[in-house]
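Hi there,

I know you've been waiting on this one. I reran it after we fixed the sequence typo, so this is the corrected version. Both the input and the resulting structure follow.
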Amino acid sequence: MTLTAMIAYAGALFIAAAIPGPGMTAIIARALGSGFRPTFFMGLGLILGDLVYLTAVILGLAIVAQTFPTPFLIIKYVGAAYLIFIAWKLWTTGLLAQDIKAERAPSLGLSFLSGLLVTLGNPKTMLFYVALAPTLLPLQDIGFGDYGVLVGITFMVLMAVLLPYILLASRARTLLKKPRALQTLNRSAASILAGTAVYIAAR
């Protein structure tokens, strides 16, 4: 695999990730509703979802995805349902204390899982890896070492895109001290997550 191919892949991935979509919307909503730590783990879940698609494409499963779309539809609807559940939890949280304790946030495992499901059910991510990535990468020539390089590139590019959003949204949450404002913030985040779930399910 040539350096040119790696640079082209990294650039295309950066642009695709930076374009607002369900994943970025869910990240911002979770950061506003729960703070940095659970959102960071949600981001890791999002990245793992990308790596799943990357691995599938390299193994030649893009053809399988086009031939047998049912499993991908199931993943999409499970992800949408889970986002609805998170939105409901945020909406019904009510007033929060000024000192937002870590235990009030969703568990890190569930945050990670929600990120994974959002990515696996995201049509934009599917389109990038199934349609665009094969045109940028010489899939037939990728060995184990090249695969490791691509995993590293994918992780670094996506983290570079996600981390600023997570930090800024988490900071915005800490600036709100009034319980009433936090309730409004939670319900706004819940509405965003619900809208994201509807978007994923409708695509």
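Quick highlight: Residues 3-202 form one domain.

Best,
R. S.
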